[in-house]
Specification:
Distance between the termini: 73 Å
Protein name: Outer membrane beta-barrel protein
Structural class: mainly beta
Organism: Bradyrhizobium brasilense
Main location: membrane
Number of strands: 8
Strand order of the largest sheet: 1-2-3-4-5-6-7-8
InterPro entries: Beta-barrel_OMP, Enterovir_OMP, OMP-like, OMP/PagP_B-barrel
CATH architecture of one domain: Beta Barrel
Keywords: Cell outer membrane, Membrane, Signal
Length: about 290
């Protein structure tokens, strides 16, 4: 019996010594170890460059309206003529290039950031010109005598041209880190530099239509008159080489970390500007680029 107890004590001593020499495996201690994160490191400042394609809709339809209202401000023709949609809505296309700089903050898989983005556009421009003639009968504010009808044969001619030279956007970004990929969306303020010109010419001839009844013997005759009362015309031209317009921007993008801080980017951006000289402009842009995160 004493031999069995002695043998057991010796085996326990050897086993304890061997366990002490083993590596420290946390699983043996029953502790929890965080799994390695699957998210890449997108935290920090970054810069980059890009090239792209842009298409824009330029609505010239009411470009002459403010000029027409000013020229006819003391005339009964101001209200009806200034509302005419004279010019068309055109489509323009351009390629371009630019650069961006920004800052990311990351919490686990969530990435938030701010970015300034600049793009020069090579030829996003269009122009239009047209004229129309209409008859305006007894416009509001006109007081012809009883039985008289005043008619204005009015012609409006106009032209307009616009070129978007470059666009700068200031964005807030929100993304979701998925390994080396970072899909993101953004929104913010856009500032565009444009060259704008427009012209308008309005002219009219005024007539007075009335009927006169005469009795000759037993016959009553009605004579129709259409008297010419005069004409008028006015013209105005405006041009501005560097006109700054403010608008808003929104879009989606995807970045891919190639190695270290080097990443590639692809994105779609929509920009809409406030009307410039009564000309409305909105753009869709598709870009690819590369950047480096510090």
């Amino acid at each position: 019996m004493r031999r069995l107890v002695l043998a057991a004590m010796m085996i326990g001593t050897v086993t304890g010594a061997q366990a002490a020499d083993l590596p420290d495996f946390p699983i043996l201690r029953g502790s929890y170890v965080d799994a390695p994160s699957r998210s890449g490191n997108w935290e920090g400042w970054y810069v980059g460059g890009q090239i792209g394609y842009s298409s824009g809709d330029i609505d010239f339809s009411h470009a002459p309206s403010a000029m027409t209202s000013f020229m006819l401000r003391e005339s009964v023709l101001a209200d009806p003529v200034s509302g005419w949609a004279l010019l068309p809505k055109n489509h323009a296309q351009s390629n371009g290039f630019g650069a961006f700089v920004g800052r990311n903050w990351q919490w686990d898989d969530v990435v938030l950031g701010v970015e300034a983005n600049y793009n020069y556009l090579n030829g996003l421009e269009s122009s239009a010109g047209d004229s129309m003639t209409r008859q305006i009968v007894n416009p509001k504010g006109e007081t012809p005598p009883s039985g008289h009808t005043y008619t204005y044969n009015t012609t409006l001619s106009g032209s307009a041209a616009l070129q978007v030279k470059d666009v700068t956007t200031f964005r807030g970004r929100a993304g979701w880190a998925a390994g080396n990929f970072l899909p993101y969306m953004f929104g913010g303020v856009a500032v565009g530099r444009m060259s704008v010109s427009r012209s308008a010419t309005v002219s009219f001839d005024k007539y007075d239509a009335w009927a006169e009844t005469q009795t000759v013997g037993n016959n009553t005759v009605t004579i129709q008159h259409n008297d010419y009362l005069g004409s008028g015309s006015a013209a105005q031209t405006e041009q501005r080489v560097n006109n700054y317009a403010v608008g808003w921007t929104a879009g989606l993008g995807l970045e891919y970390c190639v190695v270290g801080g080097l990443f590639l980017r692809g994105e779609w951006e929509y920009v809409r500007f406030a009307a410039v000289k009564n000309i409305a402009v909105d753009m869709n842009s598709f870009r690819v680029g590369a950047g480096y995160k510090f």
